[in-house]
Amino acid sequence: MMKELSSRLWGNAHKAVQVAEKYHLNTNWYAKLKQANSVRDQYHNGYWLQYSVFKDLQDYFIRMNDQRMLKKITVAYSSSNWDSVL
Predict the structure, then answer these.
(1) What's the rounded Cα separation, in Å, for the pair 58 and 65?
(2) pTM of the prediction?
(3) Helices 67-79 and 39-63 sit at what angle, rounded to 10 degrees?
(4) Contact 77, 41 (CB under 8 A)
(5) pLDDT attached to residue 1
């Protein structure tokens, strides 16, 4: 069960990175979080990677004054459905 959950979280985190790259945000900051050597690392790094990307996207859309995208990424993060904004 932990392996399945970690794998799903890890995949969602990488989708979040794709969204950040779509909006030309620098994802090099997340280099350490993009690596996982174990199931535990996938779970831990996947959580923090997804959160960090969300906060950076949130900051970006606040600065751009784009309330529509701010709402969309909040829903994407909350539901772990990053495909909706890819």
Answers:
(1) 10
(2) 0.94
(3) 170
(4) no
(5) 86
